[in-house]
Amino acid sequence: MAKGNISSTAEIGFEQQIWAAADILRGNMDAAEYKHVVLGLIFLKYISDTFEQRHQWLLEHDPDEAEDKDAYTMENVFFVPPEARWGVIAGAAHTEEIGTIIDDAMRAIEKENKQLKDILPKSYARTELDKRRLGNVVDLFTNIKMIEHGSEKDILGRTYEYCLAKFAEQEGKRAGEFYTPACVVKTLVEVLQPFKGRVYDPCCGSGGMFVQSADFVKAHRGRINDISIFGQDSNPTTRKMALMNLAIRGIEANLGTHNADTFYHDLHKTQQMDFILANPPFNLSNWNDGSLNDDPRWKYGLPPASNANYAWLQHMISHLAPNGKMGVVLANGSLTSETSGEGQIRKKIIEADLVEGIVAMPTSLFFTTTIPVSLWFLNRNKKQKGKTLFVDARNLGTMVNRRLRDLTDADISKIAETFQAFDAGTIEDVKGFCAAVTTEEIAKQGYVLAPGRYVGIEDTEDDGEPFEEKMARLTGELSEMFQRSHELEAEIRTRLGAIGFDLEVV
Question: Does pTM top 0.90 for this prediction?
C-alpha cells in the first residue's frame, strides 16, 4: 500500500510484521507461488480469530450453543470445526505434518461453509514447500495478538491489501492480473462517490475496487449494506483471492459461480449498474475470434480484435443504469487512436454526451507497466450537458522509491474536488491543470481526448532576467559543460589505454 494512504506508523508496523512472514517463507519460491501461501494463512488466521471471539462469548453466555454452527452464521462468522482451529495448527507448527494439517483445515472449513467452497488454497503439503519455514510463519501468526492493533477485521483487511501490494511489487509485470495501485483505485472512488446502489467491476482482480468503495461508504458514515457488489474475473486463482479479500472485510459480493471471460460469458448480463469501476488489461489483443462481431454491446462500433480498450468501454457502457457512472483506467493511446475505427467509436461516445471527464495520470504509478494511463469518467446523466472536464495530473504525486510514484491523499482530494466543482458548475479553468470544454471544442480538435490539448501549459513566473542576458549565461554554462565532457572523455581513453584497451568511436 502506498505511503500516502497509510494512516499511522503503528498500523504499518503491524502490517510489515505480516509481510516479514512472506520473507521467512519465501526461500527459493518466487512471488507468484508464495503469494497464495501467505494470503491463505492470513485468511485462515482471520477465520480462526473471529470464530474464537464468538466461541468464547458463547462459552460464557450460552455454552450449549458453542458448537452450534447456526450460532455463528447468524452473526456472519464462519464456523471452524475443532480439527481446523488455530490451536491445532499452532500445536503442529514444527512437525513434518504441518502442511497436511493446514490443507485438511482448509478442506474442513470449506465443508462447513458452503460460500467458501473451492476458494481456499490447499497446497501446503507439497514437497517443494519447506516445512520448517512454514512452521516459522505459523509461529509468527500465533504470536501476534490481532486485537492489540484494533479491529481484527480492519487490520487483517489492511494487511491483506498491504501484502497484495508488496507481492505486486515483487512480481512486476505479472502483477497486473490481480492488483491496481491503491491510490489509483481511491481516485476512482473519490470521484465517483459510490454511496448507494450496485457497484460493478467486470475484471475485478483481487477486489480492490470493491474494498475501496466499501471503505468510502464507511468513511462517510454510510451503510455498507446500501451497496451491492457485482464482478467477475477470468483467472480462477485471482477470483479466489478477491473472495478472500472481501470475506476478511465482511463484504458480500456476487462474483458469479465461477471464473469466466467477460466478453464471451458475461455473468451479470441482465444487470444495470449504478457505479462501474475497472482497470481492464491494457491494450489486450486477440480478444475476439470473430464470434463476437455482431454482439449488441458494440453500439458505437465494432472494436478491433487487436485492441480491447473500446470493447471494455462499450461493455461497461452497456451495463450502465440510466443514472449510472463509471471510472475506467485505460492506456493513453485510447485518447487519440484512429486505428481500425477507434477514432469513430470515440467520436460517437463523445457525441452521445457520455464522457464526463478525463484525467491524465502521472507515470510510474504501476508496478506492472510504464505505459502512461488516463482515467475515463463516463456518466449517463451528466449535470453539465455538452461539456467535458479535462484534468492534467501528470505533475502530481511523489516518488516513494526510484521507480514507483504514489498519489497522496491531498493529490487525490485535489482531483476529486475539481470534479465536484465541475459538477456544481463552479469550475474555473486552471492553466496547465484543468479545463471544462464543450463538445464543439472537442470536435474542432478531431475528437481527441488528451487533456494536454485543452488545459494548456502552466504560466511560468518571469524571473526578471533579460532574454539576451539569460541566453548568454545559459550558452556559457553549456559551453563549460561541453568542455568538461571532452576532458572526461580524454581521461577515460587514457585510463583504458593504460590497461590495454582502445575505445573506438562508432
Answer: no
